[in-house]
Amino acid sequence: MTRRLLTSYLTLAALVLLCLEIPLGYVYSRAEQDRATNAAHQEAESVSDFAALSIAYGRPEELDKQVAACAERIGGQILVVDSKGALLATSHPLVPEEQAGLAQLPEISAALLGRSGADVSTSTVGGVNSLSVAVPVQHDGKLQGAVRLAIPTEAIAGDVHRVWLGLGLGGIGVLVAVATVAFALARWIGRPILELERAAHTLAGGSLATPASVTTGPPEIRSLAVTFNRTAALLEHLLASQSAFAGEASHQLKTPLAALRLRLDNLEIDVPPHLRGNLTAAMTETERLARMVEGLLALARMEEKALTPEPVDLDRAMEERTAAWHGLYEQHGVRLLLLGNPIGSALAVPGAVEQVLDNLLSNSLRVAPMGSVVTVSRRLRATGSELHVTDQGPGMTAEQRRRAFDRFWRAPNAPKGGTGLGLALVQRLTLASGGEALLLPAPGGGLKAVIRLQSVMPRRSSGFPGIPHPRRRPQVAAGVGTGAGSGMDTGMVER
Questions:
Q1: Measured on CA atoms in the order 326, 328, 330, 335, is the torsion positive or negative?
Q2: Beta pairing partners, 447
Q3: Alpha carbon of 290 to those of 37, 131, 158, 283: distances in Å?
Protein backbone atom coordinates (compact mmCIF):
# COMPACT_ATOMS: atom_id res chain seq x y z
CA MET A 1 0.00 0.00 0.00
CA THR A 2 2.90 2.36 0.75
CA ARG A 3 4.23 1.86 -2.77
CA ARG A 4 0.85 2.59 -4.35
CA LEU A 5 0.32 5.75 -2.30
CA LEU A 6 3.84 6.95 -3.07
CA THR A 7 3.32 6.30 -6.79
CA SER A 8 0.02 8.19 -6.71
CA TYR A 9 1.53 11.23 -4.99
CA LEU A 10 4.55 11.35 -7.31
CA THR A 11 2.38 10.94 -10.41
CA LEU A 12 0.14 13.80 -9.31
CA ALA A 13 3.13 16.02 -8.51
CA ALA A 14 4.78 15.20 -11.86
CA LEU A 15 1.59 16.09 -13.74
CA VAL A 16 1.32 19.41 -11.91
CA LEU A 17 4.98 20.21 -12.63
CA LEU A 18 4.60 19.34 -16.30
CA CYS A 19 1.50 21.50 -16.61
CA LEU A 20 3.39 24.42 -15.04
CA GLU A 21 6.97 24.10 -16.30
CA ILE A 22 6.39 23.27 -19.97
CA PRO A 23 4.23 26.37 -20.64
CA LEU A 24 6.64 28.45 -18.54
CA GLY A 25 9.61 27.23 -20.58
CA TYR A 26 7.91 27.98 -23.89
CA VAL A 27 6.84 31.42 -22.68
CA TYR A 28 10.40 32.23 -21.62
CA SER A 29 11.83 30.94 -24.92
CA ARG A 30 9.43 33.12 -26.88
CA ALA A 31 10.14 36.14 -24.69
CA GLU A 32 13.89 35.65 -25.06
CA GLN A 33 13.58 35.45 -28.84
CA ASP A 34 11.41 38.60 -28.94
CA ARG A 35 13.88 40.42 -26.69
CA ALA A 36 16.80 39.48 -28.94
CA THR A 37 14.85 40.54 -32.06
CA ASN A 38 13.95 43.91 -30.54
CA ALA A 39 17.56 44.50 -29.48
CA ALA A 40 18.75 43.61 -32.98
CA HIS A 41 16.21 46.02 -34.49
CA GLN A 42 17.43 48.80 -32.24
CA GLU A 43 21.06 48.19 -33.22
CA ALA A 44 20.09 48.05 -36.89
CA GLU A 45 18.12 51.29 -36.61
CA SER A 46 21.11 52.94 -34.98
CA VAL A 47 23.41 51.83 -37.79
CA SER A 48 20.75 52.87 -40.34
CA ASP A 49 20.65 56.41 -38.97
CA PHE A 50 24.45 56.68 -39.06
CA ALA A 51 24.53 55.21 -42.59
CA ALA A 52 21.96 57.75 -43.82
CA LEU A 53 24.13 60.63 -42.62
CA SER A 54 27.34 59.08 -43.99
CA ILE A 55 25.79 58.55 -47.43
CA ALA A 56 24.25 62.02 -47.45
CA TYR A 57 27.52 63.74 -46.54
CA GLY A 58 29.78 61.43 -48.58
CA ARG A 59 31.80 59.89 -45.69
CA PRO A 60 31.98 56.18 -46.46
CA GLU A 61 35.13 55.64 -44.37
CA GLU A 62 33.31 56.66 -41.21
CA LEU A 63 30.53 54.24 -42.10
CA ASP A 64 33.07 51.39 -42.32
CA LYS A 65 34.41 52.25 -38.86
CA GLN A 66 30.94 52.49 -37.33
CA VAL A 67 29.86 49.17 -38.86
CA ALA A 68 33.01 47.40 -37.62
CA ALA A 69 32.71 48.84 -34.11
CA CYS A 70 29.02 47.96 -33.79
CA ALA A 71 29.58 44.41 -35.07
CA GLU A 72 32.38 43.89 -32.57
CA ARG A 73 30.19 45.19 -29.73
CA ILE A 74 27.23 42.90 -30.44
CA GLY A 75 29.32 39.92 -31.53
CA GLY A 76 27.56 39.71 -34.89
CA GLN A 77 27.89 40.79 -38.50
CA ILE A 78 26.65 44.00 -40.18
CA LEU A 79 26.57 45.06 -43.78
CA VAL A 80 25.14 48.08 -45.62
CA VAL A 81 23.92 48.10 -49.22
CA ASP A 82 22.70 50.94 -51.43
CA SER A 83 19.30 51.22 -53.01
CA LYS A 84 20.37 48.86 -55.83
CA GLY A 85 21.63 46.16 -53.44
CA ALA A 86 25.34 46.96 -53.99
CA LEU A 87 27.60 46.59 -50.95
CA LEU A 88 28.62 49.85 -49.28
CA ALA A 89 30.15 48.65 -46.00
CA THR A 90 30.62 45.35 -44.17
CA SER A 91 32.07 44.11 -40.91
CA HIS A 92 33.28 40.85 -42.48
CA PRO A 93 34.70 39.88 -45.87
CA LEU A 94 32.34 38.59 -48.54
CA VAL A 95 33.15 36.68 -51.68
CA PRO A 96 31.88 38.12 -55.00
CA GLU A 97 29.09 35.55 -55.25
CA GLU A 98 27.78 36.59 -51.81
CA GLN A 99 27.96 40.27 -52.72
CA ALA A 100 26.00 39.65 -55.91
CA GLY A 101 23.22 37.83 -54.05
CA LEU A 102 22.66 40.32 -51.22
CA ALA A 103 19.62 41.91 -52.85
CA GLN A 104 17.88 38.51 -53.01
CA LEU A 105 18.02 37.91 -49.25
CA PRO A 106 14.43 38.06 -47.88
CA GLU A 107 15.09 40.57 -45.14
CA ILE A 108 17.17 42.88 -47.45
CA SER A 109 14.53 42.67 -50.17
CA ALA A 110 11.90 43.77 -47.64
CA ALA A 111 14.12 46.60 -46.41
CA LEU A 112 14.80 47.90 -49.95
CA LEU A 113 11.02 48.12 -50.36
CA GLY A 114 10.87 50.34 -47.30
CA ARG A 115 9.85 47.66 -44.77
CA SER A 116 11.81 46.24 -41.84
CA GLY A 117 12.46 42.51 -42.03
CA ALA A 118 13.56 39.80 -39.60
CA ASP A 119 14.37 36.15 -40.16
CA VAL A 120 15.89 33.35 -38.08
CA SER A 121 17.83 31.38 -40.63
CA THR A 122 21.14 29.70 -41.40
CA SER A 123 23.55 32.35 -42.46
CA THR A 124 25.72 31.85 -45.51
CA VAL A 125 28.57 33.32 -43.52
CA GLY A 126 30.14 30.74 -41.21
CA GLY A 127 27.23 28.31 -41.59
CA VAL A 128 25.86 29.00 -38.10
CA ASN A 129 22.30 29.72 -36.98
CA SER A 130 21.74 33.43 -36.68
CA LEU A 131 19.03 36.03 -36.21
CA SER A 132 19.00 38.30 -39.27
CA VAL A 133 17.40 41.76 -39.16
CA ALA A 134 17.28 44.30 -42.00
CA VAL A 135 16.00 47.90 -41.90
CA PRO A 136 15.83 50.53 -44.67
CA VAL A 137 18.25 53.47 -44.80
CA GLN A 138 16.29 56.69 -45.47
CA HIS A 139 17.16 60.38 -45.51
CA ASP A 140 14.64 63.12 -46.03
CA GLY A 141 12.06 60.49 -47.03
CA LYS A 142 14.29 59.05 -49.74
CA LEU A 143 15.37 55.41 -49.70
CA GLN A 144 19.15 55.20 -49.79
CA GLY A 145 19.77 51.54 -49.02
CA ALA A 146 19.45 48.95 -46.29
CA VAL A 147 21.29 47.70 -43.20
CA ARG A 148 21.44 43.96 -42.42
CA LEU A 149 22.45 42.82 -38.97
CA ALA A 150 23.03 39.11 -38.09
CA ILE A 151 23.47 37.91 -34.51
CA PRO A 152 24.40 34.25 -33.78
CA THR A 153 21.64 32.48 -31.86
CA GLU A 154 24.00 30.41 -29.74
CA ALA A 155 23.77 32.91 -26.91
CA ILE A 156 19.97 32.98 -27.08
CA ALA A 157 19.83 29.20 -27.25
CA GLY A 158 22.25 28.96 -24.34
CA ASP A 159 20.02 31.18 -22.20
CA VAL A 160 16.96 29.13 -23.14
CA HIS A 161 18.76 25.86 -22.40
CA ARG A 162 19.83 27.15 -19.02
CA VAL A 163 16.25 28.08 -18.21
CA TRP A 164 15.01 24.60 -19.25
CA LEU A 165 17.79 23.02 -17.21
CA GLY A 166 16.84 25.14 -14.21
CA LEU A 167 13.20 24.19 -14.59
CA GLY A 168 14.14 20.52 -14.88
CA LEU A 169 16.40 20.58 -11.82
CA GLY A 170 13.77 22.49 -9.90
CA GLY A 171 11.17 19.91 -10.89
CA ILE A 172 13.42 17.07 -9.77
CA GLY A 173 13.98 18.84 -6.47
CA VAL A 174 10.25 19.26 -6.01
CA LEU A 175 9.68 15.57 -6.81
CA VAL A 176 12.33 14.54 -4.29
CA ALA A 177 10.71 16.71 -1.64
CA VAL A 178 7.28 15.37 -2.54
CA ALA A 179 8.61 11.80 -2.46
CA THR A 180 10.07 12.33 1.01
CA VAL A 181 6.86 13.81 2.39
CA ALA A 182 4.70 11.29 0.51
CA PHE A 183 6.74 8.34 1.81
CA ALA A 184 6.34 9.52 5.39
CA LEU A 185 2.61 10.13 4.83
CA ALA A 186 2.13 6.76 3.12
CA ARG A 187 3.91 4.96 5.96
CA TRP A 188 1.78 6.86 8.46
CA ILE A 189 -1.39 5.77 6.65
CA GLY A 190 -0.26 2.29 5.62
CA ARG A 191 1.27 0.99 8.88
CA PRO A 192 -2.02 0.84 10.85
CA ILE A 193 -3.77 -0.71 7.83
CA LEU A 194 -1.09 -3.44 7.67
CA GLU A 195 -1.56 -4.02 11.40
CA LEU A 196 -5.30 -4.34 10.80
CA GLU A 197 -4.63 -6.85 8.04
CA ARG A 198 -2.36 -8.93 10.29
CA ALA A 199 -4.95 -8.81 13.07
CA ALA A 200 -7.65 -9.91 10.61
CA HIS A 201 -5.52 -12.88 9.50
CA THR A 202 -4.93 -13.80 13.14
CA LEU A 203 -8.64 -13.54 13.85
CA ALA A 204 -9.39 -15.73 10.83
CA GLY A 205 -7.08 -18.33 12.38
CA GLY A 206 -9.23 -18.45 15.51
CA SER A 207 -7.59 -16.03 17.95
CA LEU A 208 -6.52 -12.41 18.39
CA ALA A 209 -3.48 -12.49 20.62
CA THR A 210 -2.35 -8.96 19.66
CA PRO A 211 -5.08 -6.38 18.99
CA ALA A 212 -4.66 -3.77 16.27
CA SER A 213 -3.02 -0.48 17.27
CA VAL A 214 -5.42 2.38 17.94
CA THR A 215 -2.82 5.12 18.55
CA THR A 216 -1.31 5.62 15.08
CA GLY A 217 -2.62 6.61 11.67
CA PRO A 218 -5.43 8.90 10.53
CA PRO A 219 -8.46 9.29 12.81
CA GLU A 220 -10.66 7.21 10.48
CA ILE A 221 -8.26 4.26 10.63
CA ARG A 222 -7.91 4.56 14.41
CA SER A 223 -11.70 4.48 14.71
CA LEU A 224 -11.77 1.43 12.43
CA ALA A 225 -9.13 -0.28 14.59
CA VAL A 226 -11.18 0.39 17.73
CA THR A 227 -14.28 -1.10 16.09
CA PHE A 228 -12.29 -4.09 14.82
CA ASN A 229 -10.80 -4.80 18.25
CA ARG A 230 -14.25 -4.57 19.82
CA THR A 231 -15.68 -6.95 17.22
CA ALA A 232 -12.76 -9.36 17.64
CA ALA A 233 -13.18 -9.39 21.40
CA LEU A 234 -16.89 -10.09 21.02
CA LEU A 235 -16.19 -12.92 18.57
CA GLU A 236 -13.62 -14.43 20.91
CA HIS A 237 -16.11 -14.28 23.74
CA LEU A 238 -18.80 -15.91 21.60
CA LEU A 239 -16.42 -18.62 20.40
CA ALA A 240 -15.29 -19.32 23.94
CA SER A 241 -18.90 -19.54 25.10
CA GLN A 242 -19.80 -21.85 22.23
CA SER A 243 -16.78 -24.04 22.90
CA ALA A 244 -17.74 -24.30 26.56
CA PHE A 245 -21.31 -25.11 25.60
CA ALA A 246 -20.23 -27.84 23.17
CA GLY A 247 -18.06 -29.47 25.81
CA GLU A 248 -20.51 -29.22 28.66
CA ALA A 249 -23.61 -30.10 26.68
CA SER A 250 -21.93 -33.27 25.45
CA HIS A 251 -21.89 -34.62 29.01
CA GLN A 252 -25.04 -32.96 30.31
CA LEU A 253 -27.25 -34.27 27.48
CA LYS A 254 -25.79 -37.68 26.77
CA THR A 255 -26.06 -38.95 30.33
CA PRO A 256 -29.81 -38.34 30.82
CA LEU A 257 -30.55 -39.68 27.33
CA ALA A 258 -28.60 -42.87 28.06
CA ALA A 259 -30.40 -43.24 31.38
CA LEU A 260 -33.77 -42.71 29.69
CA ARG A 261 -32.97 -45.34 27.07
CA LEU A 262 -31.91 -47.81 29.78
CA ARG A 263 -35.12 -47.23 31.72
CA LEU A 264 -37.21 -47.77 28.61
CA ASP A 265 -35.35 -51.02 27.88
CA ASN A 266 -36.03 -52.20 31.45
CA LEU A 267 -39.73 -51.42 31.06
CA GLU A 268 -40.11 -53.68 28.06
CA ILE A 269 -40.77 -56.87 30.10
CA ASP A 270 -43.39 -55.12 32.26
CA VAL A 271 -45.37 -53.48 29.46
CA PRO A 272 -48.50 -55.34 28.29
CA PRO A 273 -48.46 -56.44 24.65
CA HIS A 274 -51.09 -53.94 23.62
CA LEU A 275 -48.86 -51.09 24.87
CA ARG A 276 -45.63 -52.32 23.27
CA GLY A 277 -46.20 -50.04 20.27
CA ASN A 278 -46.11 -46.95 22.44
CA LEU A 279 -42.92 -48.16 24.15
CA THR A 280 -41.27 -48.83 20.79
CA ALA A 281 -42.26 -45.35 19.59
CA ALA A 282 -40.83 -43.80 22.75
CA MET A 283 -37.54 -45.70 22.29
CA THR A 284 -37.41 -44.62 18.62
CA GLU A 285 -37.91 -40.97 19.54
CA THR A 286 -35.26 -41.29 22.25
CA GLU A 287 -32.77 -42.62 19.70
CA ARG A 288 -33.75 -39.83 17.32
CA LEU A 289 -33.17 -37.25 20.05
CA ALA A 290 -29.75 -38.76 20.77
CA ARG A 291 -28.84 -38.57 17.10
CA MET A 292 -30.04 -34.97 16.92
CA VAL A 293 -27.88 -34.04 19.92
CA GLU A 294 -24.87 -35.69 18.26
CA GLY A 295 -25.53 -33.76 15.05
CA LEU A 296 -25.89 -30.42 16.81
CA LEU A 297 -22.71 -31.00 18.79
CA ALA A 298 -20.86 -31.94 15.60
CA LEU A 299 -21.98 -28.71 13.94
CA ALA A 300 -21.07 -26.71 17.05
CA ARG A 301 -17.59 -28.24 17.14
CA MET A 302 -17.11 -27.30 13.49
CA GLU A 303 -18.17 -23.69 14.02
CA GLU A 304 -16.20 -23.08 17.18
CA LYS A 305 -12.82 -22.99 15.44
CA ALA A 306 -11.25 -22.62 12.02
CA LEU A 307 -10.29 -26.00 10.57
CA THR A 308 -7.29 -26.32 8.27
CA PRO A 309 -7.61 -28.72 5.30
CA GLU A 310 -4.94 -31.41 5.08
CA PRO A 311 -4.11 -34.05 2.43
CA VAL A 312 -6.43 -37.06 2.84
CA ASP A 313 -6.18 -40.41 1.06
CA LEU A 314 -9.59 -40.55 -0.61
CA ASP A 315 -9.16 -44.10 -1.89
CA ARG A 316 -8.45 -45.52 1.57
CA ALA A 317 -11.33 -43.58 3.15
CA MET A 318 -13.77 -44.80 0.50
CA GLU A 319 -12.58 -48.41 0.83
CA GLU A 320 -12.94 -48.36 4.62
CA ARG A 321 -16.37 -46.75 4.70
CA THR A 322 -17.89 -48.94 1.97
CA ALA A 323 -16.51 -52.05 3.67
CA ALA A 324 -17.89 -50.87 7.05
CA TRP A 325 -21.37 -50.26 5.63
CA HIS A 326 -21.52 -53.41 3.50
CA GLY A 327 -22.92 -55.67 6.20
CA LEU A 328 -25.72 -53.30 7.14
CA TYR A 329 -26.66 -52.84 3.50
CA GLU A 330 -26.86 -56.64 3.08
CA GLN A 331 -29.20 -56.85 6.05
CA HIS A 332 -31.59 -54.46 4.25
CA GLY A 333 -31.28 -56.28 0.92
CA VAL A 334 -29.43 -53.43 -0.82
CA ARG A 335 -26.20 -53.83 -2.80
CA LEU A 336 -23.33 -51.41 -2.13
CA LEU A 337 -20.72 -51.03 -4.89
CA LEU A 338 -17.48 -49.07 -5.08
CA LEU A 339 -16.67 -47.93 -8.63
CA GLY A 340 -13.94 -46.01 -10.40
CA ASN A 341 -10.16 -45.93 -10.66
CA PRO A 342 -7.93 -44.59 -7.88
CA ILE A 343 -7.93 -40.80 -7.58
CA GLY A 344 -5.26 -40.28 -4.91
CA SER A 345 -5.35 -37.60 -2.22
CA ALA A 346 -7.30 -34.38 -1.80
CA LEU A 347 -7.47 -31.52 0.70
CA ALA A 348 -10.03 -31.96 3.50
CA VAL A 349 -10.34 -31.21 7.19
CA PRO A 350 -9.42 -34.20 9.39
CA GLY A 351 -12.22 -36.77 9.53
CA ALA A 352 -14.42 -34.86 7.06
CA VAL A 353 -14.37 -37.42 4.24
CA GLU A 354 -15.34 -40.28 6.59
CA GLN A 355 -18.20 -38.26 8.15
CA VAL A 356 -19.45 -37.13 4.75
CA LEU A 357 -19.49 -40.70 3.40
CA ASP A 358 -21.18 -42.02 6.55
CA ASN A 359 -23.94 -39.42 6.30
CA LEU A 360 -24.51 -39.95 2.59
CA LEU A 361 -24.48 -43.75 2.89
CA SER A 362 -26.88 -43.56 5.82
CA ASN A 363 -29.26 -41.40 3.78
CA SER A 364 -29.01 -43.68 0.77
CA LEU A 365 -29.70 -46.81 2.84
CA ARG A 366 -32.73 -45.19 4.43
CA VAL A 367 -34.40 -44.45 1.07
CA ALA A 368 -33.06 -47.30 -1.10
CA PRO A 369 -35.71 -49.92 -2.02
CA MET A 370 -34.97 -53.58 -1.28
CA GLY A 371 -33.06 -55.17 -4.17
CA SER A 372 -31.72 -51.81 -5.46
CA VAL A 373 -28.09 -50.77 -5.81
CA VAL A 374 -26.23 -47.86 -4.16
CA THR A 375 -22.98 -46.94 -5.90
CA VAL A 376 -20.03 -45.04 -4.48
CA SER A 377 -17.86 -43.80 -7.35
CA ARG A 378 -14.80 -41.64 -7.67
CA ARG A 379 -13.61 -39.46 -10.50
CA LEU A 380 -10.57 -37.29 -11.15
CA ARG A 381 -11.31 -34.17 -13.16
CA ALA A 382 -9.37 -31.07 -14.15
CA THR A 383 -11.15 -29.13 -11.40
CA GLY A 384 -10.30 -31.69 -8.67
CA SER A 385 -11.50 -34.97 -7.18
CA GLU A 386 -15.16 -35.98 -7.08
CA LEU A 387 -16.98 -38.49 -4.85
CA HIS A 388 -20.41 -39.66 -6.01
CA VAL A 389 -23.00 -41.51 -3.93
CA THR A 390 -25.97 -42.57 -6.08
CA ASP A 391 -29.12 -44.35 -4.93
CA GLN A 392 -32.27 -45.59 -6.67
CA GLY A 393 -34.71 -44.09 -4.20
CA PRO A 394 -37.57 -41.65 -4.81
CA GLY A 395 -35.19 -38.74 -5.44
CA MET A 396 -35.94 -35.05 -4.88
CA THR A 397 -37.45 -32.21 -6.84
CA ALA A 398 -35.33 -29.19 -7.77
CA GLU A 399 -36.85 -27.16 -4.92
CA GLN A 400 -36.23 -29.98 -2.44
CA ARG A 401 -32.59 -30.29 -3.56
CA ARG A 402 -32.17 -26.57 -3.08
CA ARG A 403 -33.40 -26.74 0.53
CA ALA A 404 -31.87 -30.09 1.43
CA PHE A 405 -28.78 -28.55 3.05
CA ASP A 406 -30.84 -26.40 5.46
CA ARG A 407 -30.71 -27.45 9.08
CA PHE A 408 -33.66 -29.51 10.34
CA TRP A 409 -35.26 -29.56 6.88
CA ARG A 410 -36.57 -32.94 5.73
CA ALA A 411 -38.26 -33.96 2.51
CA PRO A 412 -42.02 -34.53 2.81
CA ASN A 413 -41.66 -38.19 1.74
CA ALA A 414 -38.59 -38.89 3.93
CA PRO A 415 -38.72 -41.96 6.19
CA LYS A 416 -39.39 -41.34 9.86
CA GLY A 417 -36.57 -41.18 12.38
CA GLY A 418 -34.31 -38.62 10.70
CA THR A 419 -33.10 -35.37 12.20
CA GLY A 420 -32.57 -33.12 9.17
CA LEU A 421 -28.98 -32.36 10.20
CA GLY A 422 -26.98 -34.83 8.11
CA LEU A 423 -26.85 -32.98 4.81
CA ALA A 424 -26.23 -29.69 6.64
CA LEU A 425 -23.20 -31.32 8.26
CA VAL A 426 -22.09 -32.70 4.87
CA GLN A 427 -22.18 -29.24 3.33
CA ARG A 428 -20.35 -27.59 6.25
CA LEU A 429 -17.61 -30.21 6.22
CA THR A 430 -17.19 -29.90 2.46
CA LEU A 431 -17.07 -26.10 2.53
CA ALA A 432 -14.59 -26.17 5.43
CA SER A 433 -12.42 -28.43 3.24
CA GLY A 434 -12.51 -25.87 0.41
CA GLY A 435 -14.85 -28.00 -1.71
CA GLU A 436 -18.43 -28.09 -2.92
CA ALA A 437 -21.42 -30.35 -2.19
CA LEU A 438 -24.18 -30.86 -4.78
CA LEU A 439 -27.37 -32.89 -5.07
CA LEU A 440 -28.32 -33.94 -8.61
CA PRO A 441 -31.00 -36.19 -10.09
CA ALA A 442 -29.62 -39.66 -10.77
CA PRO A 443 -30.03 -41.19 -14.24
CA GLY A 444 -33.04 -43.51 -14.18
CA GLY A 445 -34.40 -42.07 -10.94
CA GLY A 446 -33.01 -41.53 -7.48
CA LEU A 447 -30.53 -39.01 -6.14
CA LYS A 448 -26.83 -38.47 -6.75
CA ALA A 449 -24.74 -36.64 -4.14
CA VAL A 450 -21.54 -35.10 -5.57
CA ILE A 451 -18.65 -34.02 -3.33
CA ARG A 452 -15.89 -32.01 -5.05
CA LEU A 453 -12.52 -31.54 -3.37
CA GLN A 454 -9.20 -30.06 -4.43
CA SER A 455 -6.77 -32.76 -5.57
CA VAL A 456 -3.25 -33.04 -4.19
CA MET A 457 -1.24 -35.85 -5.80
CA PRO A 458 -3.28 -38.48 -7.68
CA ARG A 459 -1.95 -42.00 -7.35
CA ARG A 460 -1.06 -44.01 -10.45
CA SER A 461 -2.35 -47.49 -9.80
CA SER A 462 -4.74 -49.80 -11.57
CA GLY A 463 -6.95 -50.96 -8.76
CA PHE A 464 -7.67 -51.27 -5.07
CA PRO A 465 -6.40 -54.34 -3.25
CA GLY A 466 -9.23 -55.90 -1.31
CA ILE A 467 -12.02 -53.97 -3.12
CA PRO A 468 -14.29 -56.20 -5.21
CA HIS A 469 -15.09 -55.64 -8.87
CA PRO A 470 -18.37 -53.74 -9.35
CA ARG A 471 -19.96 -56.83 -10.94
CA ARG A 472 -19.38 -58.88 -7.77
CA ARG A 473 -21.00 -58.38 -4.40
CA PRO A 474 -18.57 -56.56 -2.06
CA GLN A 475 -17.32 -58.39 0.98
CA VAL A 476 -16.82 -56.92 4.42
CA ALA A 477 -13.17 -56.13 5.03
CA ALA A 478 -11.60 -58.17 7.77
CA GLY A 479 -11.64 -56.50 11.16
CA VAL A 480 -14.06 -53.74 10.09
CA GLY A 481 -17.48 -53.80 11.70
CA THR A 482 -20.78 -52.90 10.14
CA GLY A 483 -22.75 -49.85 10.99
CA ALA A 484 -24.72 -51.71 13.64
CA GLY A 485 -21.92 -53.76 15.11
CA SER A 486 -19.32 -51.03 15.28
CA GLY A 487 -21.44 -48.53 17.09
CA MET A 488 -21.60 -46.31 14.03
CA ASP A 489 -24.51 -43.85 13.95
CA THR A 490 -26.28 -45.05 10.84
CA GLY A 491 -29.42 -43.06 11.31
CA MET A 492 -28.15 -39.69 12.53
CA VAL A 493 -28.91 -37.96 9.25
CA GLU A 494 -31.88 -37.62 7.02
CA ARG A 495 -32.79 -35.72 3.89
A1: negative
A2: 441
A3: 105, 106, 97, 11
